[in-house]
């Protein structure tokens, strides 16, 4: 599958990360890297620590050991607000949309880092604030068009079916024009048609905007189709890393999934 | 030094009074996650009903029993009309509902029994005990001791009720997770009715104690405001926390009143308890005994 | 039914984002403002202007302040009255201590001081949320009241703690008649309501609502939690401060700390709940309802009196008022948690869809 | 020099005229990215100029054919104008047509250049590329998904436009020259009619045909540049093309393109057009939607609606035509307008409509009266692709439900002994492209066009069409059998979506019925009648009873008109599947292909006539994505009560 932009050098790397919740070791010395413009998948059986890894990457959880390297800059641990300003955006496993707002407002909130006006200019609706609001509205409309959700633009988010809410969350993440997009099981609970749409959107995003994608996914079919490289986690440890073909054949991965007794 | 001990002892006894009121909040919060702002007005209603019945010549025990039944009914009525329809609303909505309830209860009480303050006499002298005051000149009244005793008994009964009995176990299950409790067949509405009835009883006891000490009048409703810092310190879910919190607040308030007050112009008891609670919260947001709140994403 | 929307299309984002996109709404709001600014001062009698309309506007402004903090930003506050007190007393001191201080300047100073107090008592919101936060604002309520009573400077060392609002004058025109006070209050309230509406439809407002709905997601997409919460406290307290100043200067005339007790905070909280949390219009509807309701009750009881021919004790009326207030709060929270504003919005949607069902 | 309309004899000249005279007025609006993006006349002209230069450099020359496939977008109209600037002939094709249907026109017109909307159309053209050797250049507008297509023929519209801008800037004279070369007699466009029989025919229409007819009607109806039209039908249909390309270039009014097919109703309400044209089935669908939604309304609102609709039915039309009406009725209607009709027109986006035409097919009288009674000035229009649409139009003051109005100025009407209608008009098409034999069949020496429709002129001078001439048959007892007329009466009921009547050379009339899934499903839910799908619902006894009731009402109406009294419907069956254009049972504009259906379902027709109660059917069906499957079902045949002529009492 040829693509818009060639895969670049290492953009994001994690070394020896360990995370524990009161004795329970969610992550145990995990290291892997992500190249820029790549679609990097993280797979593994339930409870393998996939979501925790994602939460470490974008600063929601703070690991006890290990380091995170982003564009050569080194971090003891990431704080979520800082991660956002570095251009790391994410979606959540069980949807974290703002129920009190419409689809359009939810996506516009994604652009808050790019807004410059202070609250006084906005209160008096001065020229600068008005123009800024219009600029960002135009950018958001491109994304709405891109993800084909024009018809629900003004609906309150709470009223939308599951599949559409997932798409709105992707739109909000895209609104921040991220360099890295962390997707936490974007296709969980979707029917076949919705899954195909979401795959198409993810590939379009990677292709059109050149965004690096880190994807947690259970559906092996999807993982094999759209990811360039795969990391396999099991009980908080990395047990395999490579292209989908390599990983699929790896005995340790098969055991992990089929539940062979652990050493 | 002696004076300091006396101030602390007085503070502790005042603390007991706070704990009594705080207990009512804890029971309801433990079982339904509702911070019942109306507990204060329930205390006022209970005291007012009891003292009005006494003045009408009823004998003490009869008045006590009738008020007791009245409070249980009021508790159940509140649960039925206000709490059940708002069952899974956010806590902020439930708090506002109980504030509304406060106004209703105050209106009803004053409507039924008029709004003049009443003295309340339980036949227990509230005069400092002579031999204690001469020897270590600590003037603690028999009433203070009685109040401490009542508080102790109440706590013991409640502790036994919640830990050991079947209802207690059901109560703690409901407190953790309504859906799960329902799933295992615990009759949620039934439990909540009991909970509110118990809260009604605790309100009555608190009402009596406060009634004797400061007389039965409108100010009683503001005991809720007094109980808030206690709950902050002790944590909303723990009975032990309510007692310990009450004592700490009582003592520190008295000490501050005596030592700090003069420099600042006195009258600081209105806000001092809050400042302590606030400082405490910044250190341990979940209070003394509450569990740590973890935001799972 | 009243709407004729056909043909009203939007060809620029500016048009699409305006406050009243539909022509009929624009006509209605312009008519309302015209009546409020021109007809009412001319026609309204002294009693209605000074005892009903001006307090309604002042309390609407305070409710608007509370709405910004609790309705939009989700931070519960029980200290509205304290912020109003700071506004009132600091405005008084500004007029007192700063030579030929313009009245509007005094109001702004009152507001800014209230905002400062708001930020101080907003600091705890960084670590604590929900019910616990009510404690911080309650602490503020009691502390401020205590401070104003105890520290003589605030009330210019008057023995009773009572202060008399200075004479007001703008560009030479004295503001002393009920009509002029009403118009001044109206102008300030309308301007600040418009500013609040603009705020809520732009980035700050969205940040507030994001923090209210899901703060974890908000911080992950880059919204600075602490800055947003403090800003909410500051703006909200500024609104309450100005409302307090108006309460003293345009409504009561002489004011004492006891006018700003916890009971006033509860009244404003009721106005927000019944009017509708999270809605600018809701603040006005709630304030209107709570201000007019007791008057309606009195009229009803007077009518009942001469209907039954017997005297109804005043205590009975005030108690029933409290009972009905409390019952209304519970009723609204059960039936329509979003209050009158949501009922109004549903009616409007029905009118736009008429004759089709909603 | 002031250009009188005479010298502006081609569309490009008209376009440049508007760009000069009303350069800043809105020419085309499109709902995109949440708001209505607007093209002024100057921008429209510039886009056409630059595109023309680009196409010229790519080799498009005078007389070539330029294929256009896409929905209503500003750029498709700019492409038509650009082609015409160079004297090329635009060939609009249906964007929802299947790939194979496009092969013939492209091959027949030896198309070299094609401008298409998006990836969907590109895929269709690539699929039939082997069958169209001449097709060399395909320009696509929406780049979505086409990033990795590497075919040589493909090129982006924006690249073509950019190069064109360069060329025009360097040498504007070339293009102005090309435009000046255009003459009224040149071919303006080539429209392929789907036609109900045989291969499609390419109708050649000259500039004069289109401009002259548009001009006459625009003056007759006082159309000005202030009018607004919403373009939502396929641009390849002559009906839409006239109203959203030809006439706006004559009158200078603004056309609006909706955001997508799903949002037409909301876009209609936002724009509120003043000038509207749609085939009857659009009006039918709207009426069904209105009645279904009103059924769901609360009881008081429903009562109010039915009460005032009754008032409207009584006096609505008379008031609109200014006829005398009692004061009390006028008051009731005024109240009705405030409470029901005004809001109803508003919600449908019709409150600003000055003139609304319905044409392309006959419309059921009750449907027609419904819209007029709520205050929409709906009028019948008769015409066809060959006659540049405008043949007959009802005047505002004299509108009758069952006629199509007098002839438009400049049109002559004549009838053959078999009652077939002949037309002569300046709008008559030049010829069928590369099909002189077919041209000869319909266009005789004196220039009369054989329409193939049967009808007569009534007392008021209005033309009344009864049916297709070749379909008009006769029962064994000689009475006139007009299937289209019967079918329209049946289709007026919201529960019947399509009907096919048989009776020519038989003793009595029988019919196939297609139920309207949405309306009948809603009706079934109200009576909590469980059903598993279309086939199951269609076979239910209750649904048969419902349809029989409708058929009997039609029979009662027919009994009133003595010439066709005994062409009442005796027996009918409900088809197991919806008739569909993809199965070639309907034309692209959803007209019933009666002969094809008669052959395909011959066993069913036979069963109707030999009197048995049910018939088994095995049929091949093509699904949405082109796969074919088998459907088999037992269809019940029911009898319907008929009424003695003239003396018939009105059916319950």
Largest sheet of chain A: 6 strands, mixed
Uncertain parts of chain D: 647-652
Task: Quote the distance from N terminus to C terminus of chain D.
Answer: 69 Å
Name the pair of protein chains with the most residues at their interface, and give those residue counts.
B-C, 47 and 43 residues
Average pLDDT score of chain D: 87
In CATH, the homologous superfamily of the largest domain in chain A goes by the name: P-loop containing nucleotide triphosphate hydrolases
Strands of chain A, count:
10
CATH class of the domain at 5-277 in chain D: Alpha Beta
Write the layout of secondary structure elements.
The complex is a heterotetramer of chains A (263), B (297), C (358) and D (652).
Chain A: E1 10-21, E2 24-35, E3 39-43, H1 50-57, E4 65-70, E5 73-75, H2 80-86, E6 88-90, H3 103-109, H4 119-123, H5 127-146, H6 162-175, E7 180-184, H7 192-208, E8 212-216, H8 220-226, E9 229-234, E10 237-242, H9 244-249, H10 251-258
Parallel strand pairs in A: 3-8, 3-9, 6-7, 7-8
Antiparallel strand pairs in A: 1-2, 1-4, 4-5, 9-10
Helix pairs in contact in A: 3-6
Chain B: H1 2-32, H2 39-55, H3 60-83, H4 91-113, H5 130-136, H6 142-163, H7 166-176, H8 178-183, H9 188-214, H10 223-234, H11 239-264, H12 269-283
Chain C: H1 13-17, H2 23-43, H3 46-72, H4 80-97, H5 103-122, H6 131-150, E1 163-164, E2 168-170, E3 173-175, H7 178-200, H8 203-213, H9 215-220, H10 225-252, E4 254-255, H11 262-275, H12 280-308, H13 314-335, H14 339-353
Antiparallel strand pairs in C: 1-4, 2-3
Describe this structure in words.
The complex is a heterotetramer of chains A (263), B (297), C (358) and D (652). With 263 residues, chain A is of the alpha/beta class. In chain A, strand 4 and strand 5 (73-75) form a beta hairpin. Chain A is built from ten helices and ten strands. Chain A is globular. Chain B has 297 residues and is an all-alpha fold. Chain B has one domain. Helices cover 74% and strands 0% of the residues of chain B. In chain B, helix 1 runs parallel beside helix 6 and helix 3 packs across helix 9. The relative contact order of chain B is 0.19. The mean pLDDT of chain B is 80. Chain C is mostly helical and 358 residues long. Chain C is 72% helix and 3% strand. Chain C is built from 14 helices and four strands. With 652 residues, chain D is of the alpha/beta class. Helix content of chain D is 39%, strand content 21%. Chain D has 21 helices and 27 strands. In chain D, the strands form seven sheets. Chain D has a five-stranded parallel beta sheet with strand order 4-3-5-6-7, with helices on both faces. Chain D has a five-stranded mixed beta sheet with strand order 23-24-25-27-26, with helices on both faces. In chain D, helix 2 packs across helix 3 (74-85). Chain D starts with 10 loop residues before the first helix and ends in a 13-residue tail after the last strand. Classes of the chains: A alpha/beta (263), B mainly alpha (297), C mainly alpha (358), D alpha/beta (652). Chains in contact: A-B, A-C, A-D, B-C, C-D. At the B-C interface, helix 4, helix 10 and helix 12 of B face helix 6, helix 11 and helix 13 of C.
């Amino acid at each position: 599958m040829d693509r818009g932009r060639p895969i670049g050098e290492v953009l994001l790397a994690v070394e020896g990360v360990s995370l524990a919740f009161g004795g329970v070791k969610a992550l145990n010395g995990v290291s892997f890297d992500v190249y820029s413009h790549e679609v990097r998948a993280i797979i593994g059986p339930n409870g393998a620590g996939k979501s925790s890894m994602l939460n470490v990457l974008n600063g929601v959880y703070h690991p006890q050991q290990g380091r995170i390297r982003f564009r050569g800059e080194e971090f003891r641990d990431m704080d979520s607000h800082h991660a956002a300003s570095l251009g790391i955006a994410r979606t959540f496993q069980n949807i974290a949309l703002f129920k009190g707002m419409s689809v359009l407002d939810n996506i516009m909130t994604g652009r808050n880092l790019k807004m410059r006006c202070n609250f006084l200019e906005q209160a008096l609706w001065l020229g600068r604030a008005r123009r800024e609001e219009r600029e960002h509205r135009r950018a958001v409309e491109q994304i709405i068009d891109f993800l084909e959700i024009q018809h629900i633009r003004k609906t309150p988010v709470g009223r939308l079916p599951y599949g559409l809410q997932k798409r709105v969350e992707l739109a909000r993440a895209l609104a921040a024009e991220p360099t890295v997009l962390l997707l936490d099981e974007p296709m969980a609970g979707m029917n076949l048609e919705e899954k195909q749409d979401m795959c198409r959107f993810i590939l379009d995003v990677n292709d059109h905007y050149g965004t690096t994608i880190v994807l947690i996914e259970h559906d092996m079919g999807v993982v094999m189709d759209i990811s360039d490289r795969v990391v396999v986690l099991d009980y908080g440890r990395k047990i395999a890393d490579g292209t989908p073909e390599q990983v699929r054949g790896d005995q340790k991965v098969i055991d992990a999934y089929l539940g062979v007794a652990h050493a | 030094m002696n004076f300091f001990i006396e101030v602390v002892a007085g503070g502790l006894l005042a603390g007991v009074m706070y704990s009594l009121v705080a207990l009512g909040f804890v029971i309801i919060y433990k079982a339904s996650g509702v911070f019942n702002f109306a507990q204060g007005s329930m205390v006022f209603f209970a005291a007012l009903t009891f003292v009005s019945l006494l003045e009408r010549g009823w004998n003490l025990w009869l008045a006590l029993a009738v008020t007791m039944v009245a409070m249980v009914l009021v508790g159940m009525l509140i649960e039925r009309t206000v709490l059940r329809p708002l069952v899974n609303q956010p806590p902020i909505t439930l708090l506002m509902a109980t504030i509304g309830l406060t106004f209703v209860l105050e209106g009803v009480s004053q409507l039924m029994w008029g709004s003049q303050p009443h003295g309340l006499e339980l036949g227990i002298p509230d005069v400092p005990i002579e031999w204690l005051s001469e020897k270590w000149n600590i003037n603690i009244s028999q009433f203070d001791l009685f109040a401490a005793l009542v508080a102790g008994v109440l706590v013991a009964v409640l502790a036994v009720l919640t830990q050991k009995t079947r209802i207690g176990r059901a109560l703690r299950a409901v407190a953790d997770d309504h859906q799960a409790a329902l799933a295992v067949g615990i009759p949620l509405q039934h439990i909540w009715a009991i909970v509110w009835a118990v809260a009604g009883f605790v309100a009555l006891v608190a009402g009596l104690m406060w009634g004797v000490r400061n007389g039965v009048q409108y100010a009683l409703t503001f005991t809720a405001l007094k109980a808030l810092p206690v709950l902050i310190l002790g944590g909303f879910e723990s009975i032990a926390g309510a007692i310990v919190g009450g004592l700490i607040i009582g003592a520190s308030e008295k000490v501050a009143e005596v030592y700090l007050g003069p420099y600042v112009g006195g009258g600081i008891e209105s806000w001092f308890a809050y400042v302590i609670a606030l400082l405490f919260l910044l250190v341990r947001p979940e209070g003394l005994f509450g569990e740590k709140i973890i935001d799972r994403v | 039914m009243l709407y004729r929307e056909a043909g009203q299309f939007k060809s620029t984002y500016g048009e699409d984002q305006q406050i009243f996109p539909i022509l009929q709404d624009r006509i209605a709001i312009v008519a309302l403002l015209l009546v409020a600014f021109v007809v009412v001062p001319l026609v309204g009698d002294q009693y209605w202007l000074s005892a009903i309309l001006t307090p309604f506007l002042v309390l609407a402004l305070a409710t608007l302040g509370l709405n910004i903090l609790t309705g939009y930003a989700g931070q519960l506050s029980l200290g509205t009255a304290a912020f109003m007190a700071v506004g009132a007393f600091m405005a008084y001191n500004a007029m007192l201590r700063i030579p030929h201080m313009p009245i509007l300047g005094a109001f702004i100073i009152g507001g800014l001081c209230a905002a400062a107090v708001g930020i101080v008592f907003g600091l705890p919101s960084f670590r604590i949320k929900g019910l616990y936060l009510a404690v911080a604002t309650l602490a503020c309520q009691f502390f401020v009241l205590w401070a104003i009573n105890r520290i003589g400077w605030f009330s210019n060392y008057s023995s009773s703690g009572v202060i008399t609002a200075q004479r007001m004058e703008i560009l030479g025109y004295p503001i002393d008649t009920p009509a002029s006070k009403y118009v001044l209050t109206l102008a300030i309230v309308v301007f600040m309501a418009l500013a609040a509406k603009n705020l809520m439809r732009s980035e700050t407002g969205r940040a507030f609502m994001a923090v209210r709905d899901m703060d974890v997601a908000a911080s992950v997409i880059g919204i600075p939690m602490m800055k947003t919460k403090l800003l909410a406290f500051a703006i909200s307290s500024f609104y309450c401060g100005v409302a307090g100043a108006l309460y003293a200067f345009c409504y009561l005339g002489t004011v004492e700390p006891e006018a700003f007790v916890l009971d006033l905070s509860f009244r404003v909280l009721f106005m927000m709940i019944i009017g509708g949390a999270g809605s600018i219009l809701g603040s006005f509807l709630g304030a209107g309802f709570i201000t007019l309701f007791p008057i309606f009750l009195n009229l009803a009881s007077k009518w009942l009196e001469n209907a039954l021919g017997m005297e109804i004790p005043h205590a009975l009326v005030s108690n029933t008022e409290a009972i009905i207030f409390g019952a209304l709060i519970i009723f609204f929270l059960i039936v329509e948690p979003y209050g009158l504003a949501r009922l109004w919005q549903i009616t409007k949607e029905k009118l736009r869809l008429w004759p089709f069902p909603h | 020099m002031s250009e009188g309309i005479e010298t502006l004899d081609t569309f490009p000249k008209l376009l440049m005229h508007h760009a000069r005279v009303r350069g800043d007025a809105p020419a085309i609006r499109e709902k995109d990215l949440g708001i209505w993006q607007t093209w002024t006349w100057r921008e429209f002209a510039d886009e056409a100029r630059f595109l023309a230069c680009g196409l010229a450099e790519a080799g498009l020359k005078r007389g070539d054919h330029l294929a256009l496939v896409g929905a209503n977008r500003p750029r498709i109209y700019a492409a038509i104008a650009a082609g015409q600037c160079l004297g090329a002939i635009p060939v609009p094709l249906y964007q929802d047509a299947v790939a194979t249907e496009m092969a013939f026109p492209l091959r027949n017109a030896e198309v070299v250049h094609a401008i298409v909307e998006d990836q969907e159309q590109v895929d269709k053209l690539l699929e039939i590329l082997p069958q169209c050797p001449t097709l060399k250049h395909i320009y696509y507008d929406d780049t979505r998904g086409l990033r990795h297509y590497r075919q040589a023929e493909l090129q982006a519209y924006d690249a073509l436009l950019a190069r064109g801008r360069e060329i025009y800037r360097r040498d504007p004279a070339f293009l102005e020259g090309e435009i000046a070369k255009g003459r009224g007699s040149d071919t303006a466009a080539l429209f392929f009619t789907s036609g109900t029989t045989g291969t499609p025919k390419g109708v050649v229409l000259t500039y004069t045909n289109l401009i002259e007819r548009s001009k006459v009607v625009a003056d007759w109806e006082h159309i000005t540049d202030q009018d607004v039209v919403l373009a939502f039908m396929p641009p390849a249909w002559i009906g839409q093309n006239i109203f959203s390309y030809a006439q706006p270039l004559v009158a200078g009014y603004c056309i609006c393109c909706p955001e997508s097919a799903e949002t037409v109703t909301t876009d209609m309400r936002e724009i509120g057009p003043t000038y509207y044209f749609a085939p009857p089935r659009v009006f039918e669908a709207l009426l069904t939607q209105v009645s279904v939604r009103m059924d769901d309304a609360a009881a008081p609102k429903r009562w109010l609606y039915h009460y005032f609709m009754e008032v409207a039915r009584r006096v609505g039309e008379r008031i609109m035509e200014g006829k005398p009406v009692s004061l009390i009725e006028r008051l009731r209607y005024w109240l009705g307008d405030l409470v029901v009709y005004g809001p109803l027109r508003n919600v449908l986006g019709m409150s600003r409509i000055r003139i609304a035409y319905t044409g392309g097919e006959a419309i059921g009288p009750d449907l027609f009266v419904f819209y007029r009674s709520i205050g929409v000035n709906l009028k019948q229009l008769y015409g066809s692709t060959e006659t540049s649409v405008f043949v007959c139009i009802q005047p505002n003051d004299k509108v009758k439900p069952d006629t199509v109005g007098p002839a438009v100025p400049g049109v002559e009407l004549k009838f053959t002994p078999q009652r077939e209608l002949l037309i002569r008009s300046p709008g008559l098409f030049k010829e069928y492209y590369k099909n002189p034999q077919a041209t000869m069949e319909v266009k005789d020496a004196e220039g009369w066009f054989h329409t193939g429709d049967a009808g007569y002129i009534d007392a008021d001078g209005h033309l009344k069409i009864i049916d297709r001439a070749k379909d008009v048959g006769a029962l064994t007892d000689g009475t006139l059998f007009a299937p289209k007329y019967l079918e329209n009466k049946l289709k007026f009921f919201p529960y019947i979506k399509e009907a096919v009547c048989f009776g020519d050379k038989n003793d009595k009339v029988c019919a196939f019925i297609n139920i309207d899934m949405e309306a009948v499903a809603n009706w079934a839910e109200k009576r909590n009648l469980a059903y598993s799908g279309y086939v199951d619902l269609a076979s239910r006894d209750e649904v048969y009873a419902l349809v029989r009731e409708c058929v009997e009402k039609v029979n009662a109406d027919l009994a009133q008109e003595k010439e066709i009294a005994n062409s009442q419907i005796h027996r009918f069956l409900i088809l197991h599947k919806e008739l569909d254009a993809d199965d070639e049972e309907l034309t692209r504009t959803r007209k019933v292909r009666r002969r094809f259906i008669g052959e395909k379902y011959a066993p069913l027709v036979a069963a109707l006539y030999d009197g048995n109660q049910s018939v088994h059917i095995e049929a091949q069906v093509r699904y949405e994505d082109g796969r074919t499957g088998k459907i088999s079902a037992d269809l019940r045949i029911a009898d319907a009560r008929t009424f003695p002529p003239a003396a018939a009492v009105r059916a319950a």
